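hey m, so remember when u said the tokens were messed up on ur end? i reran from scratch. heres the input so u can diff it against urs
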Amino acid sequence: MNMMCCLLCYKDYDSHDHLFFSCYYSTQVWFHIRAHAEMENVQPVWSDVFTEMIQRKASKRIEVIVARLTVAAAAYYIWKERNTRLFQNNARPPDKLAQEILSTVRYKLMGLKFKESARMARMLEKWNIRGDEDYDMGAHSILS
């Protein structure tokens, strides 16, 4: 195997720009998760994702926090998938990785404290977190 070849798609060189998110595999993951982060219009190009995050950096709105968590989880799990393929020769399809990313973000959201609002209720509903559940268990406080 060519060690310079992307282990996720086998179509291009393994590089930061390719892996996040020009690679066919990571593009499929991005298309599965971006709507949950309200980033439907952000293309699977690292510079576009990064620019979107920079433009929102000072905001404490729930949508921005969800976007940050989603991008961070995507980068982590895509890198982890690459390493799993490299060192353990084990591969998962993009939809399975996307589900793991979404589950991780959902669990993180369940552990945060939020100020109640209509925006917050809509976002929690989108992530299938019911308002009557105890989602106020975490030590982190996030304002909407």
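this time it looks ok to me. The chain has a mean pLDDT of 87. if urs says something different then somethings off w ur setup not the seq
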